[in-house]
């Protein structure tokens, strides 16, 4: 049985822990491989943030003709060369993943890479199953960074029908004529934008009455209206069955108007993700988990077992790469400085949805503030009422802020519209560094007539003394 100073399970953010400060540690990395090609490097690089946003950018270009007429410009989308798009994106990503693997396997003499699935068989004892058999390894310290996977809902007939998740949909050989997407969260909203912009007829199916329902109520409400104009939107629906014949999938739904059937060549399931703690045998390793299967950690990312840390999607309620990376830096510090550990900072975690339009958000939503009895004032600013919004003829985008009436500090910021994930960054900064809204608005220049004037005006609109 091989014993190590440190075992890291998962090569998403977990892979970033090792740098030259660990050169005299005897380390094992365990990675089962992700996505259809069993790649190294985790979700974000191979099947998540990076390829999706490369598709989103292409989709944004492909949908540009839609905004031409209102500006007096006639544009036409001539063709969509799907295989060229796909192969450009993965032609860039696949070699990066392969290079990351090669670096660890060939250039790190102190690191042993086990290419197989790890499963705890006891406290700090892991059985690793590879193609050549099973081996048990132990270590003084473990980092569990094994992420999550798409959930597949229990719909009668789904087992017997070909369907896709975010792991496979980006590698289709052909664009279908029609695509049905189950789930109106991040992944549903992003892929609906990508595929419809490339000419696919999209039906988006949700259980609740709102798209992106965990966003601020006004954002979700306005986005739902836009989604209904762009896609065949079926809300308040339950799936009662699914079957496939003649190359067509038929999804049976139950909704406000009774039973109905959606037909599509391709079905994409985007109904959330579950942590891989079950596959990892977390309980055998003595690791306490929450009701939804996340590994419990304290503020220092330490689990219930001394010397075992967890980070990223397997333990965090924020399934976001920037959070996994932050937690990775915390765990790295705590491995290197056990006498002076640091805490993770989850106070103001932002996120963005790269759909059409884009959305970005940080801090409290209005419904959060109300639910927790937090006093707030709020203000909105439409893109349509700033100079750059006139240039774009934008009619749907806006920023909404919530602030503490006593201190003037921001409690939450929500933006929907062009470049929302970029525009929100100064608001994230203000929240982190405790800058009040008035000082932020009037204590600096705002370039005229640039898009951040949206943020300046939203700040000035707040009813503060
Ligand atoms: C389609 C999609 C788009 C996304 N877009 C964004 C975005 O734009 N911005 C953003 O911030 N976040 C985005 N995310 C979320 C982001 O990808 C994740 O939050 C992040 O990648 C989590 O990193 P991680 O290190 O925790 O886990 P992962 O990157 O999932 O790494 C876990 C690794 O562990 C391996 N593993 C699992 N179990 C075992 C085992 N038992 N033995 C060995 N190895 C194992 C897996 O193969 C995997 O490689 C997106 C996610 C998806 C699915
Ligand atoms: N831009 C980003 O940062 C980004 C992009 C993609 C994914 N992600 C991360 O990945 C996570 C997973 O994304 P996701 O979109 O799968 O999950 P999600 O939780 O955002 O949305 C899933 C949706 O599916 C619904 N749902 C569940 N069962 C259903 C069913 N049977 N039929 C119809 N709808 C059903 C849920 O109610 C929910 O609204 C996100 O929460 C996010 O943290 C982030």
Question: Can you put this structure into words, describing what you see?
Answer:
The structure is a single chain. The protein is α/β, with parallel strands linked by helices. The protein folds into three domains: 2-150 and 274-336, 3-Layer(bba) Sandwich (FAD/NAD(P)-binding domain), CATH 3.50.50.60; 158-271, FAD/NAD(P)-binding domain (3-Layer(bba) Sandwich); 357-461, Enolase-like, domain 1 (2-Layer Sandwich). It contains twelve helices and 21 strands. Strands 1, 2, 3, 4, 5, 6 and 16 form a seven-stranded mixed β-sheet that branches. Strand 9, helix 5 and strand 10 form a beta-alpha-beta unit. Helix 2 packs antiparallel against helix 3 and helix 2 (49-62) packs parallel to helix 4 (186-197). The longest helix is centred in the first third of the chain and has 26 residues, at 82-107. The chain is globular and about 70 Å long. The N and C termini lie far apart (68 Å). The mean pLDDT is 98. The structure holds flavin-adenine dinucleotide (FAD) and nicotinamide-adenine-dinucleotide. Nicotinamide-adenine-dinucleotide binds at residues 153, 182-188, 190, 205-207, 239, 270-273, 319-320, 351-354. One of its GO terms (molecular function) is nucleotide binding. Its cofactor is FAD. NAD(+) binds at residues 183-190, 272.
Keywords for this entry:
alpha/beta, seven-stranded mixed sheet, 3 domains, binds nicotinamide-adenine-dinucleotide, Enolase-like, domain 1, FAD/NAD(P)-binding domain, 465 residues, binds flavin-adenine dinucleotide, five-stranded antiparallel sheet, 28% helix, single chain, 12 helices
């Amino acid at each position: 049985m091989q014993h190590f100073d440190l075992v890291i399970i998962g090569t998403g953010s977990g892979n970033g822990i090792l740098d030259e400060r660990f050169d005299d540690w005897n380390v094992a990395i365990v990675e089962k491989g992700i996505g259809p090609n069993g790649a190294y490097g985790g979700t974000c690089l191979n099947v998540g943030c990076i390829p999706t946003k490369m598709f989103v950018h292409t989709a944004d270009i492909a949908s540009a003709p839609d905004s031409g007429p209102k500006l007096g410009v006639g544009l036409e989308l001539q063709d969509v060369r799907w295989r060229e798009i796909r192969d450009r994106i993965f032609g860039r990503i696949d070699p990066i993943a392969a290079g990351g693997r090669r670096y660890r396997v060939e250039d790190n003499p102190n690191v042993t890479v086990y290419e197989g699935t790890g499963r705890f068989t006891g406290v700090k004892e892991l059985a690793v199953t590879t193609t050549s058999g099973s081996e048990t390894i132990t270590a003084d310290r473990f980092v569990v960074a094994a992420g999550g996977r798409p959930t597949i809902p229990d719909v009668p007939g789904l087992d017997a029908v070909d369907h896709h998740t975010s792991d496979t949909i980006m590698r289709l050989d052909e664009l279908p004529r029609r695509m049905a997407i189950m789930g109106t969260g991040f992944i549903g909203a992003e892929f609906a934008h990508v595929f419809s912009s490339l000419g696919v007829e999209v039906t988006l199916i949700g259980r609740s009455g709102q798209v992106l329902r965990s966003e601020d109520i006004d954002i979700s409400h306005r986005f739902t209206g836009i989604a209904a104009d762009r896609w065949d939107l079926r809300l308040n629906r339950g799936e009662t069955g699914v079957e496939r014949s003649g190359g067509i999938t038929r999804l049976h739904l139950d909704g406000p108007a009774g039973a109905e059937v959606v037909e599509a060549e391709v079905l994409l399931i985007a109904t959330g993700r579950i942590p891989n703690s079950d596959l990892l045998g977390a309980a055998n390793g003595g690791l306490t988990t929450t009701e939804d299967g996340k590994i419990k950690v304290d503020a220092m990312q330490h689990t219930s077992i001394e010397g075992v840390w967890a980070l990223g999607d397997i333990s965090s309620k924020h399934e976001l790469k920037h959070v996994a990376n932050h937690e990775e830096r915390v765990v790295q510090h705590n491995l290197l400085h056990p006498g002076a550990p640091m805490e993770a900072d989850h106070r103001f975690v932002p996120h963005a949805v790269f759909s059409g339009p884009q959305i970005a958000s940080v801090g409290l939503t209005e419904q959060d503030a109300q639910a927790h009895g937090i006093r707030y004032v709020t203000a909105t600013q439409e893109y349509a009422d700033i100079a750059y919004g006139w240039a774009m003829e934008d009619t749907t985008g806006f920023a909404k802020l919530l602030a503490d009436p006593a201190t003037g500090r921001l409690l939450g910021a929500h933006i929907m519209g062009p470049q929302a994930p970029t525009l929100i960054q100064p608001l994230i900064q203000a929240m982190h560094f405790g800058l009040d809204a008035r000082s932020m608005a009037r204590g600096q220049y705002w370039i005229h007539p640039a898009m951040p004037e949206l943020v300046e005006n939203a700040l000035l609109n707040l009813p503060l003394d």
